[in-house]
Write a structure and sequence with these properties.
The complex is a heterodimer of chains A (103) and B (385).
Chain A (H helix, E strand, L loop, with lengths): L1 E5 L13 E5 L3 H11 L4 H4 L10 E5 L2 E2 L15 E6 L17
Parallel strand pairs in A: 1-5
Antiparallel strand pairs in A: 1-2, 3-4, 3-5
Chain B lengths: L10 H6 L1 H4 L5 H10 L1 E5 L5 H11 L3 E6 L23 H12 L4 E6 L7 H5 L4 E4 L4 H14 L3 E7 L2 E7 L7 H4 L12 H4 L5 H18 L8 E6 L4 E6 L21 H5 L13 E2 L1 H11 L3 E5 L3 H4 L8 E2 L5 H4 L8 E5 L4 H12 L3 E5 L2 H8 L8
Parallel strand pairs in B: 1-2, 1-4, 2-3, 4-5, 9-13, 10-11, 10-12, 12-13
Antiparallel strand pairs in B: 5-6, 6-7, 7-8
Helix pairs in contact in B: 4-5, 4-10
The chains are: A alpha+beta (103), B alpha/beta (385).
């Protein structure tokens, strides 16, 4: 079934600017595979070398974190949206490179 | 917090806060709570500006600010605490003057320092609520862990381009930042505001949400944003809300914490490499490139990997434009017999481009510091942006 995946701004450079990507998938894992097949550059941003989802990338099915559902095995009900929510650090400061924490 | 029985409002304060006093949710008791309260804002920048202004206006009795930077012209597009006359001067002096002008009845404490594992607990411990308005992962993890150890609520906000996130972390009753993001992304994977840009009003919206949450926590009204991540998209003008859960395996606030004291956050996040600090093995300094072009201008191809809207601002003479995102598909357009020098704004994207080109067998160098360094070191007629 068709699943809509919401792509956050930092990752849109790898989806040729697309905000919403529609793929055919039954589970979260299938949706991610279909997504990275279409946009191979996304793969290293979503998965680590062992092929596991990176811990700084959160996936939400509707408003639920898939980690608290069945992870990549989570079935996607009809009409549900999958959102990728990456960590962003921006505070609207001009990154000067001097804001560095040292012990 | 001070004992409310010892807090009084003067007649001037009653006039100033009359619009608060008219609402039973705030009222005299709430206003006294605000006067007795203290909030620490980390970063007097995009998020810290509106947060500090609203907290000062609302009558939060003691506001602390942590920053060490000076006001730069490029801050003024969004950092509304600071004015043009303060460019080149310390942000904290600017902030203090502005906040005390807005409300002379409050106390503004300035901590002109980089927040570190050595000073964070000492600085944070004297405040009731902490607002995170920083711009980098090491400081965000540091502030989170310090708040968990001290048992303090942390009002979180972060922004990128047109999108923002906000929530309230309070490990005593809900998740912390590490429950949401156990680890930071490796340096360079997520572009910063300096590289990616930020919509000037965006920190206004997110910073005002942070101020709202801080005030609600202080007066004990409403439903705090605990356990909920608010996502805001300015372009589509949509707010969404995601559920956040406390992670029982969280290394800092979980059932068996493995982190019991502040750690080395630079090491944890990888050194926070900012764009102009990106160093690669194929770097070329701006002056070196200038000499090279003067020696043999014909043999070298300048390749600009920025976006077309940046190309419109400025470019190097004779350069070819292929935005980084199109590069993998357009590699065949490059000539393997030529030597390339790639550049972007600050050298980070072009370093990625250089790696892609090198892997494809092309001869390539990366202009260190990008076109901005060229502007500073070689040709000031090229605008710095």
């Amino acid at each position: 079934m068709a699943v809509q995946i919401l792509i956050p701004t930092p990752l849109r450079v790898y989806t040729r600017g697309e905000k919403v990507v529609t793929v055919e998938a039954g589970t979260v894992g299938e949706a991610l595979r279909a997504l990275t097949e279409r946009f191979p550059e996304l793969r290293r941003h979503l998965f680590n070398e062992e092929g596991r989802l990176r811990s700084f990338v959160n996936l939400y099915l509707g408003d639920e974190d898939v980690r608290y559902l069945q992870g990549e095995e989570t079935p996607i009900p009809d009409g549900q949206t999958l959102s990728i929510v990456p960590s962003i650090a921006g505070g609207g400061r001009w990154s000067s490179g001097r804001w560095i924490t040292r012990r | 917090m001070l004992n409310l029985n010892e807090v009084f409002l003067t007649n001037e304060e009653i006039r100033r806060y009359s619009r608060h006093l008219l609402m039973p949710e705030v009222g005299l008791t709430g206003q006294k709570k605000l006067k007795a309260a203290s909030v620490l804002i980390i970063g007097a920048g995009g998020l810290g500006s509106p947060a500090a202004l609203y907290l000062a206006a609302a009558g939060v009795g003691r506001i602390g600010l942590v920053d060490f930077d000076v006001v730069d012209e490029s801050n003024l597009q969004r950092q509304i605490l600071h004015g043009t006359s303060w460019v080149g001067k310390p942000k904290l002096a600017s902030a203090k003057a502005r906040l005390l002008d807005l409300n002379p009845d409050i106390t503004v404490e300035t901590h002109e320092t980089v927040l570190t594992s050595a000073n964070a607990l000492e600085i944070l411990k004297d405040y009731d609520v902490i607002i995170d308005g920083t711009d980098n992962f090491p400081t965000r993890y540091l502030v989170n862990d310090a708040c968990v150890f001290l048992g303090k609520p942390l009002v979180y906000g972060s922004i990128f381009r047109f999108e923002g996130q906000a929530t309230v972390f309070d490990a005593r009753v809900g998740p912390c930042y590490r429950c949401l993001y156990p680890e930071p992304p490796p340096p360079g994977l997520v572009p910063s505001c300096a590289e990616g840009g930020v919509f000037g009003v965006l920190p206004g919206v997110i910073g005002a949400i942070q101020a709202t949450e801080a005030i609600k926590l202080i007066i004990g009204q409403g439903e705090p944003l605990i356990g909920r991540l608010l996502l805001y998209d300015a372009l589509s003008m949509r707010f969404r809300e995601l559920k956040l859960r406390k992670n029982p395996a969280c290394p800092v606030c979980g059932e068996n914490p493995t982190i019991r004291e502040l750690i080395d956050y630079e090491a944890f996040c990888g050194v926070p490499i900012y764009e102009h600090e990106v160093r690669t093995e194929f770097d070329i300094a701006p002056r070196e490139l200038k000499a090279m072009l003067e020696r043999d201008g014909q043999g070298i191809v300048l390749l600009d990997v920025r976006e077309p809207h940046e190309w419109e601002i400025c470019r190097l003479e004779g350069a070819l434009l292929i935005p980084l995102r199109e590069l993998p598909e357009r590699l065949h357009q490059l000539d393997p017999t030529r030597e390339y020098v790639v550049y972007c704004k600050t050298g980070a994207r072009s370093a990625q481009a250089a790696r892609i080109m090198q892997a494809a067998g092309l001869r390539v160098r990366n202009l260190r510091g990008g076109i901005n360094a060229w502007s500073r070191e070689v040709d000031p007629s090229v605008p710095l942006y």
